[in-house]
Amino acid sequence: MTYSSDITQPYHICVIDIGSPKLGNLGWCLFDIKKNQELTGDNLDDLFPHLIEASKTSGIILGLEAPLFVPLRPDLMEATRARKGEGRRPWSAGAGAQVLTMNLPIMTYIFKHLYALKPEISYFLNEHGFSAQPGQVMIFEALVSGADKGASHINDAQIMVSSCLPFSQSKRLPQSILEEENQTEYLNLSAAALLRRGIWSDPTSLCLASPIYKPSNDPI
User: Fold this and answer.
1) Quick check: 210 and 125 in contact, CB under 8 A?
2) Model pLDDT for residues 32-75, shown as the tens digit of each residue
3) d(CA 10, CA 215)
4) Rounded to the nearest 5°, which phi and psi values hold at 131?
5) Per-residue pLDDT tens for 117-175?
6) How wide is the angle at C-alpha 160 spanned by C-alphas 148 and 17, nearest 5°?
7) Residue 58 to residues 72, 124, 133, 149, 172, Cα–Cα distance (Å)
8) Considering only CA atoms, which of 29, 34, 28 is closest in space to residue 11?
């Protein structure tokens, strides 16, 4: 299903392709829906002022290309199996597991600096309650893999942003590929980072799943 009933206006879209900053394996893209302007770069510190400025005029969906939550299943033999819906590139294998680890300090760094610049930002781990009002940031997991991938880390971020743009223009959210799974709980790593930085204080947020968007989502 597509979640969008609460969206009141088009929203900005920002995607960060997660990788090693030291090795130059990180890229970002921000589309300012009000200015109809795309900004890109490979230095996270350059992104923060643009994100803060954009947050003054509309909500933002912020995509991180890394697993943002892991499944918690009652059967230990199923502990590292792919989340239902994500296909043949599970969160726990190969590139997914590597970038999950890389993202933990990077994501915490992002929240720290955004909070320092604008502590009143309201964060959402999924679509519930997000209406795209100024000052709202909804976090999603960007899955750009296989045939969807571009020529660079910045290009990967651009591809995901371009896929989300029609949804923003029509005041909707993309469809998450995550499917419901019986007897499965979640540990949300974005919530852990927000709690660690003191931005949130409610530990129940650790149990939430975040939407997973792929560039192949059909806006129709």
Assistant:
1) yes
2) 999 999 999 999 999 999 999 999 999 999 999 999 999 999 99
3) 19
4) -120, 5
5) 999 999 999 999 999 999 999 999 999 988 888 889 999 999 999 999 999 999 999 99
6) 90
7) 35, 14, 5, 28, 14
8) 34
Q: Which of 188, 200, 205 is nearest to 91 (CA)?
A: 188
- For residue 2, the model assigns a pLDDT of 43
pLDDT at 218: 43
> Angle at which helices 94-117 and 189-196 pack, to 10 degrees?
30
Residue 219 has a pLDDT of: 41
- For 127, list phi and psi in degrees, rounded to 5: -75, -20
Position 192, amino acid: A
Tokens of 86: 């994500």
Angle (CA) 124-174-172 rounded to 5° is 80
Give the position of tokens 């589309």: 31
The residues, ordered by sequence, that sit 6+ positions from 76 with a Cβ below 8 Å of its Cβ are none
